[in-house]
Design a protein that fits this description.
Elements lengths: L6 E6 L2 H15 L5 H4 E5 L5 H9 L9 E5 L22 E7 L8 H5 L5 E4 L8 H11 L3 E2 L1 H11 L3 H14 L5 E2 L1 H7 L8 H9 L3 H13 L6 H19 L6 H8 L3 H10 L5 H18 L9 H13 L1
Parallel strand pairs: 1-4, 1-5, 2-3, 3-4, 6-7
Helix pairs in contact: 5-6, 6-8, 9-10, 9-11, 10-15, 11-14, 12-13, 14-15
């Protein structure tokens, strides 16, 4: 069945890689016939350190090894008490700890000692400027190809939620033949993301003060509300205005410096630098307040009876004036 470490500690902000590694271990560590006897999968909210340690020290039943997987370990109240387990691991067993959405606390003894007893993997988020390349690489790995514009559209519309991107691509794989080069049309027709009317096109139109396009997109969102609610728009616009504010106060106003400081592609940094002239710092501060106000309104604070589309139009008008 292959060689495995007695301990795997998988942690970090990106859950997709943690899920893939733990699934691969489950698939390959123990034969299917043995899983009823020698595989235990627990969840953090229902588990405690004592239970995990008891399972990890037990012996397999008529098999080579026992597999213990703790999913959603970040929800376990006494997770860091598992430090006591490290010196008592049954070397014939495999313990997999899946600590998702955040990094382990580097000050804890478990974090410091775990690398000496097994494999520790930190699952970092894919940065925004890396996302298009990541999508292109993933698509090729699963037997398809994708145009640069289609990869950018998918990444821009969904953001760096890799699990959701993979889910959408899996839907495409059902309707497209292996080897197909995925285009913007494929994405628009099968995933429902418009290449012309999406939240990132709205952000770009707002950044360039293209009022006509801003309200054309807002009208499209009102007629096609699924996935275009104001709650999905506000975080993207908040990122736009805070980045523009950082441009104004950056010690160096160059493409290279801003790309490094903001974690984006140099071309995107160049465009941001150009658009900063459209929004002085005082206006940016006002716009951030407007976004906060409409975030509250969209959640019912103030008992607003306006629809999501009406609130979006009101908000955009204020952002442009």
């Amino acid at each position: 069945m292959g060689k495995f470490h007695p301990l795997y500690v998988l942690h970090g902000e990106e859950p997709l890689f943690i899920d893939k590694i733990s699934d691969a271990i489950i698939e390959n560590a123990i034969s299917e016939e043995e899983r009823d006897f020698n595989q235990t999968i627990l969840y953090g909210k229902d588990a405690d350190a004592l239970t995990i340690m008891s399972e990890a020290k037990s012996f397999p039943f008529m098999g080579e090894r026992k597999l213990i997987v703790l999913r959603e370990a970040q929800d376990m109240r006494d997770f860091y008490d598992l430090e006591k387990l490290l010196g008592e691991l049954n070397p014939g067993n495999i313990v997999v700890l899946c600590f998702k959405y955040k990094n382990l606390d580097g000050r804890k003894e478990l974090t410091k000692k775990a690398p000496k007893h097994g494999l520790v993997f930190k699952s970092d988020k894919v940065r925004d400027y890396q996302l298009t390349n990541w999508i292109s690489t993933y698509v090729r790995e699963v037997g398809f190809d994708i145009t640069p514009n289609a990869a950018a559209l998918l990444g821009d519309s969904i953001g760096n939620e890799l699990s959701r991107i993979v889910s959408e691509l899996e839907k495409l794989s059902i309707v497209l033949e292996k080897g197909t080069k995925i285009s913007e049309i494929h994405i628009e027709e099968n995933i429902g993301i418009s290449k012309d009317y999406n939240v990132f096109e709205l952000s770009n139109a707002l950044a360039t003060r293209n009022n006509l396009k801003v309200f054309q997109i807002a009208h499209y969102f009102d007629k096609n509300p699924k996935g275009h609610e104001i709650q999905a728009v506000i975080p993207i616009l908040y990122k736009l205005f805070t980045n523009l504010m950082r441009v104004h106060f950056a010690p160096q106003k160059t493409d290279a410096y801003l790309a490094s400081a903001l974690g984006m592609h140099p071309m995107a940094a160049k465009e941001l630098l150009r658009n900063a002239n459209n929004f002085p710092p005082k206006i940016l501060a006002k716009n951030i307040e407007v976004l906060h106000e409409y975030d509250l309104k969209s959640k019912g604070v103030g008992s607003s009876s306006a629809s999501s589309g009406d609130l979006l139009n009101e908000m955009l008008f204020q952002l442009l004036n």
